[in-house]
Amino acid sequence: MLFDLHVHSCFSKDSDSDLDSILKWAKINGLDGLAICDHDSVEGGVACSKRAEELDCDILVIPGIEVSSAEGHVLIIGVNKAIPPGLSVPETIICARE
Q: Which residues, other chains included, contact 79 with Cβ-Cβ below 8 Å and sequence gap of 6+?
C-alpha cells in the first residue's frame, strides 16, 4: 500500500489545499491513503475522513496532527483530538497516548 503520511489541508496555517483536491491528488497519484497532519489541529483530518466517506472514495484518510512542541514539531498519526502545543516532546507523547 502507498501512503503519504504528512499532508496539510486548508485547516493548517501553511496550506490552502481543500479536502476534495487532496483526495483527487491522492487518487491521481496512485495513493491508497494519506494522513492529514495539520499544524496543531485535527479538524482537517477528521473532516477529510468524513468527506472521503461522503464521496465513497477508496482513499483511506488517517486523521493526525503536527504538534508544535517546545522542542519542535511532532507528527502524531491516528488521533482525533487536539494535543496542546508548547509541551515538551515527552509530554506531547503522553498526551497522544491518552
A: 42, 63, 64, 65, 96
